[in-house]
Amino acid sequence: QMEEHQSTRSPLSLFWVSGPGSGKGTQCANIVEHFGYTHLSAGDLLRAEIKSGSENGTMIQNMIKEGKIVPSEVTIKLLKRAIEENGNDKFLIDGFPRNEENRAAFESVTGVQPEFVLFFDCSEEEMEKRLLGRNQGREDDNIETIRKRFKVYMESSLPVIEYYSAKGKVKKIDATRPVGEVFEAVKAIFTKAWLDEACVSSLDFFP
Ligand SMILES: Nc1ncnc2c1ncn2[C@@H]1O[C@H](COP(=O)(O)OP(=O)(O)OP(=O)(O)O)[C@@H](O)[C@H]1O
Ligand SMILES: O=c1ccn([C@@H]2O[C@H](COP(=O)(O)O)[C@@H](O)[C@H]2O)c(=O)[nH]1
Ligand SMILES: [Mg+2]
C-alpha cells in the first residue's frame, strides 16, 4: 500500500515568491546543499531561453527589459521540462508564480500544489540598493526597469502571496537582515517542514 502511495505522489515543490533583489539567488545554494531541493529560477530559465536563440527569445528579452510578466505558457513549458528532465522530486521554484494567472495555469497544467510558499519580506529601499549594486550585467538592473519591476510585483505578485496566505501556506522571513541571519531563519523553516513531512510519512507505517 505504501508503494502505491509513493508512486502516485507528485513532486514536492515549493514556490518562492518575493520582491526583486530580496536575496533568493543568494540563499539558494545553501538550501540546495542542506535540504536537497533542486533550485529552478523561472527568470534564469527565461534568460537561458534567450541565449539558446529560441524563436521566443526576442519577445522574452523585450518583456524582461520592461519588467513585464512573460506569458504563462512560455514559462510553464520551461519549468515543466526542467522538472521532467530532473531525477529529483523536490523543487524550489524561485520567482514563480508571478501573478494569479501564472498560479492557476501552473496548477491546472501540472496538478502540483506547493508544499508551502516562501516569502522573503524586504523593504523596497533595501531591494533597490541591492539591485543597483548587483553588477551581474542584467539588462533589467537599471533604475527605470527596477521601478517597473517593483510596480508589477506590488500589483500582480503580492496577490499570489495573499492567496496562499489565506490558505495558511506562506512562510515569511525578514530578508532585510544580513545573509547569515536570513539563512538561519530559512534553516528553521526547512527543518520544521522536514520534521512535519517525516511525521506524515510515519503514518504510512502506523496507519
Ligand atoms: N541579506 C542580504 N544583505 C545584503 N545584500 C544581499 C543580501 N542578500 C542578497 N544580497 C545582495 O543583493 C543582490 C541581489 O540578490 P539576489 O540576486 O540573491 O536577489 P534575487 O531575489 O534573486 O533577485 P531577483 O528577483 O532580481 O532575481 C546581490 O548583489 C546579493 O549579493
Ligand atoms: O515567472 C517569471 C519569472 C520571471 N519573469 C521575467 O523575468 C524577469 C526577471 O526575473 P527574476 O525572478 O528577477 O530573475 C522578471 O522581471 C520578468 O520580466 C517572468 O516574466 N515570469
Ligand atoms: Mg534571482
Automatic annotation (TrEMBL):
This is UMP-CMP kinase. The lineage of its organism: Eukaryota, Viridiplantae, Streptophyta, Embryophyta, Tracheophyta. Catalyzes the phosphorylation of pyrimidine nucleoside monophosphates at the expense of ATP. Plays an important role in de novo pyrimidine nucleotide biosynthesis. Has preference for UMP and CMP as phosphate acceptors. One of its GO terms (biological process) is nucleoside monophosphate metabolic process. Binds 1 Mg(2+) ion per monomer. Monomer. Consists of three domains, a large central CORE domain and two small peripheral domains, NMPbind and LID, which undergo movements during catalysis. The LID domain closes over the site of phosphoryl transfer upon ATP binding. Assembling and dissambling the active center during each catalytic cycle provides an effective means to prevent ATP hydrolysis. One of its GO terms (molecular function) is nucleobase-containing compound kinase activity. The keyword Ion transport does not apply. The keyword ATP-binding applies. It comes from Salvia splendens (Scarlet sage). Its EC number is 2.7.4.14. NCBIfam families: UMP_CMP_kin_fam. It is an enzyme of class 2 (transferase).
